[in-house]
Write a structure and sequence with these properties.
This is ATP-binding protein. The chain is an alpha+beta fold. It has 3 helices and 5 strands; from the N terminus they run E-H-H-E-E-H-E-E.
Length: 130
């Protein structure tokens, strides 16, 4: 099992999300096992982007990204200080308020989980096939 952790910026910025995507790409490229298929790598990067964006937007403006490689899966975990859990909602097609990310993550992942922290906050995680 290989784990890497990265802190996203304490502000809501596209730079923090881009940095998280770059961290995910570097993590996947650095795995010592057989090469990760390009489609699987793209899926991991997309899920990282969505979870970090949601944590920054709805979770208090800061988060920590944790990536863990298991034999056949990658676990993406994002920790943020908010106790509010992601929820399914009708996507906003006109107002730009979102609603697309969490349904997409749940469709792409083999499993998702939301764990509340003992001292507040939560961790949102997704397991993705290699």
């Amino acid at each position: 099992m290989i784990t890497v952790m990265a802190s996203a910026a304490a502000v809501r910025s596209t730079t923090a999300v881009a940095d998280a995507r770059d961290t995910a790409r570097a993590f996947l490229e650095g795995l010592q096992q057989s090469a990760v298929a390009p489609d699987a790598a793209d899926t991991v990067v997309l899920v990282v982007s969505e979870l970090v964006t949601n944590a920054l937007r709805h979770g208090g403006g800061r988060c920590t990204l944790e990536l863990t490689a298991h034999p056949d899966t990658i676990e993406v975990a994002v920790h943020d200080p908010s106790r509010h859990v992601p929820r399914m909602r009708t996507p906003d097609l006109n107002g730009g308020t979102g609603g697309f990310g969490w349904p997409m993550v749940t469709r792409l992942a083999h499993a998702t989980a939301v764990t509340r922290g003992a001292s507040g906050g939560k961790t949102v995680s997704a397991r993705l096939a290699l």
